[in-house]
Amino acid sequence: MPFRIWKSRLFTSSVIIAFFSMGMMQGVIFYVNMIFQEVYGWSAIKTALGFLVHALLAIVVFSILGRTLPMMRLKPLILTGFVLRCGAALMFAFVNEDTNYWHLPFPALIVHVFGIGFSFLPVQITAIRDAENKDQGLVGAIYNTGLQLGGPFGIAILNAISISTNEVSGHDGSSVRGGPQLMKGYKNALFGIVAFGVIAFTVTAIMLPWDKPVRPAKKASTSENEDPENHVIEGKVEVVEREKLEREIVLGKVESLALDADLAGIPPVLQKDENQIEVEGGDDSTIDSRGEESTQ
Length: 296
Fold this sequence. Notes:
- The chain folds into 2 domains: 3-207, Growth Hormone, Chain: A; 251-296, no CATH class.
- Helices cover 65% and strands 4% of the residues.
- The chain is built from 8 helices and 3 strands; from the N terminus they run ααααααααβββ.
- The protein has helices at 9-39, 44-50, 52-68, 74-93, 105-129, 136-166, 183-207, 228-264; strands at 277-280, 284-287, 293-295.
- The termini are far apart.
């Protein structure tokens, strides 16, 4: 791995942001799943249905952002995305067994989707934007490595927070093994997710620039209403010009041959018509196609 790629401020900061961003996402998915099953007591099927809005809305949001990102500044989007994701984690942190799904978890999932869309895609664009063509694959691979490391490391840290909290959360000081009482540990883990978001927000605010993404070069505009005869005329003009150029090349070769023959005193054999060819020599003379030389 060439270490020169780490000299890019955009790339280095993007990998750091990706690490904490993936830790946040995996943490939210994991602990929301645990809240639905342990605190609410839902089955696996009902938990999957509870996440349905998250999956469907992600398809819509990511499709729209893919079209609109070239027209927007990336840094404000990334900052907004981390604010929304921290807000979603805080909303889940205050859920308990009596909280209605539609009052808090449902809107929190919607906010989380927008937060992911605003932060993930722009960070990925920023990571590879300044990379040279020969380094594009390597930069993308290292960026994905940052994502893959962020998930397990994030879950490990958050689980350590949650388990250590629930170890002493029982009424008699014993550890909690299941049920709604686990929410205390989940809450602290969600606060840890917010801390990840604050770190990523700070790195974004300090290290990423405010400029827009590079727009792709526009192709030459071709109107659908353009008259097709124009293309035909342009094609004919090109053919005529090409034939004219070829004719000039042939005539130039013939003149050169005649001149060389005249200087050497050898009549040239020309496969041409009877048109005469003027040759500028030491004396004024003409050479016809039959090799006859006449002095004027």
